[in-house]
Specification:
Belongs to the ABC transporter superfamily. Macrolide exporter (TC 3.A.1.122) family. This is ABC transporter ATP-binding protein. Residues 5-235 form the ABC transporter domain. By secondary structure, the chain is an alpha/beta fold. The protein has one domain (3-96, 143-231): Rossmann fold (3-Layer(aba) Sandwich), CATH 3.40.50.300. 34% of the residues lie in helices and 29% in strands. It has 8 helices and 10 strands. It has helices spanning 47-54, 77-87, 103-113, 119-129, 145-158, 175-191, 203-206, 228-231; strands spanning 3-16, 19-32, 36-40, 62-67, 70-71, 88-91, 163-167, 195-199, 211-216, 219-225. It has a 6-stranded mixed sheet, sandwiched between helices. Strand 7, helix 6 and strand 8 (195-199) form a beta-alpha-beta unit. Helix 3 (103-113) runs parallel beside helix 5 and helix 4 (119-129) packs across helix 5 (145-158). The longest helix is centred in the last third of the chain and has 17 residues, at 175-191. It is globular. Bound molecules: adenosine-5'-triphosphate and magnesium ion. Magnesium ion binds at residues 47-48, 93, 167.
Length: 237
């Protein structure tokens, strides 16, 4: 199997109030194409920061990120945006829908960027998959948190990404909707071969992936293959 993501000696430091804050230190791992991997860890441990660096949304302070054999550190902002458009889907913890666009238009954006045809029908199909076709004309402010999350999911899917990063994809959903979203994620993983990298506090969800990387205080505390018997029923805080 080919490697789709290779992270070497990755570090991220923020400067605030004249002080340096090391958020991630010496992170190393790689992920094979088609795998489903979870990243877990306490709040503030650096999971969202790590996901952003892996996806080329942000730049590392040290080390390297290689996505689909492309070294992201060597690229300009525009070049990284191109790599994201071509290969990456991202579901944000805070959704990041464009507030002035309807649900439908939000899902159409990546399709438009790729210069695809028949984008309205494709976007409607995707909204239908997340159970929101009937709300397509609504703006994000008119949707509940869980509904916005599902629009964000449809938008990420519309890119037909080679690798999908999802930051707490079921964090705001009721049990039934959460099951639907999980199924969509794992179907995409199995049917389209999309690599999945999930950040989650829900260990039941994490146990459905093949591998769990645990982050603590900006370091990798453990990186293990899943033994679902052992993990079921627990939840990280
Ligand atoms: N732009 C920034 N400037 C300064 N510090 C930041 C910035 N972004 C994140 N941090 C800090 O980095 C640390 C890690 O944040 P991050 O959002 O990656 O955590 P997380 O593991 O995703 O937490 P949660 O589970 O609550 O989402 C936190 O202490 C946060 O305050
Ligand atoms: Mg986070």
């Amino acid at each position: 199997m080919a490697t789709i993501l290779d992270i070497r000696n990755l570090g991220k430091t923020y400067r605030s109030g004249g002080k340096e804050l090391a958020v991630l230190t010496d992170i190393n791992f790689s992920i094979e194409e088609g795998a489903a991997v979870s990243i877990v860890g306490p709040s503030g441990s650096g999971k969202t920061t790590l996901l952003g660096l892996c996806a080329g949304l942000d730049r590392a302070s040290s080390g390297s990120v290689e996505l689909n054999n492309i070294r992201l550190d060597d690229l300009s902002e525009d070049q990284r945006a191109q790599v994201r458009n071509r290969y990456v889907g991202f579901i944000f913890q805070n959704f990041q829908l464009l507030p002035t666009l309807t649900a439908l238009e939000n899902v159409m954006v990546p399709l438009e960027l790729r210069g695809e045809k028949n984008i309205k029908n494709q976007a409607l199909d995707l909204l239908d998959k997340v159970g929101l076709a009937h709300r397509h004309h609504h703006y994000p402010a008119q949707l509940s948190g869980g509904e916005q999350q599902r629009v964000s999911l449809a938008r990420a899917f519309s890119n037909r990404p080679k690798i999908l990063f999802a930051d707490e994809p079921t964090g705001n959903l009721d049990a039934e909707t959460s099951d639907k979203v999980e199924k969509l994620l794992f179907d995409l993983n199995q049917d389209a071969g999309t690599t999945l990298v999930l950040v989650t506090h829900n260990l039941d969800l994490a146990a459905k992936t093949q591998r769990i990387i645990r982050i603590k205080g900006g370091h990798i505390a453990s990186d293990e293959l899943v033994n679902s018997d052992q993990l079921a029923g627990n939840s990280y805080q």
